[in-house]
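Risk register update: the risk that structure generation would not scale has been downgraded. Supporting records follow, first protein first.
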Amino acid sequence: AARRRPSDRESLLRAAAPQTSLARGFSLTTDGSGALVRTVAQVSPGASVTTRVADGHFESVVRTTRRQGDG
């Protein structure tokens, strides 16, 4: 049986999948309510966050926050 070649659309979907980004070394961090953390303003010292990586996840407690350019 001949192998079907993935379409451009399938390749794009695979490349955009979160798991593909995680496999490249990126991570996704969520706050206590499960919302994706996109900015330091979303968390404060003492907040619990969960970080998802390619092979699982881990929980952390925020010690400090610093906005880019604040030193």
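Supporting record for the second protein:
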Amino acid sequence: QGEHARAAALYQDAASDFESPATTPRFLLGAARAHAAAGDADAAQAALQQVIDDYADTPEAQTAAAEIGRV
């Protein structure tokens, strides 16, 4: 769990440090998956919801919408 939590933090940092419509949604998906693997469903859902809300026109938003119900 600790490694997954660390990975989630790194993905979140990358999403905010290198904000771009081309990369941020992917970083947030990575964060969501790592949060889920670490057992933090609330953080996973928050990251997925951010992709849906902020990057609605991206393929990652469709992925996030599909994954949010499974977290």
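The mean pLDDT is 96. On this basis the risk owner (M.S.) recommends closing the item.
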